[in-house]
# Entry
Amino acid sequence: QVQLVESGGGLVQAGGSLRLSCAASGRTFSSYAMGWFRQAPGKEREFVAAISWKGGRTYYADSVKGRFTISRDNAKNTVYLQMNRVKPEDTAVYYCAATAAYRSGSDYAGEYDYWGQGTQVTVSS
# Structure
């Protein structure tokens, strides 16, 4: 069992930066690939970024590639999402997720076993 708690969300102006964190409980964090997803009002949840269990592989949605960076610190049981040059269309609730079965990471929400409660990111124009 893994419990995930996101933090770092808030209000930011377009063009600014924000760093989200996701702290995981348990001693097996390093066994899980991690992902970030987001859901805007009236829209389906969408993939943002993923990182493999050792951190050697990362994946990004085209909409955030070159602006967002996912990373992890297995010693701190934490995964991060650095968001740079944010845009109003990045406004959403951001969720982190963990999967044990797909250690290289996945862009499919259905392959993740555990989810956090989400943190709101609002980008003003």
Observations:
- The first strand starts at residue 4 and ends at 7.
- The chain is about 0% helix and 45% strand.
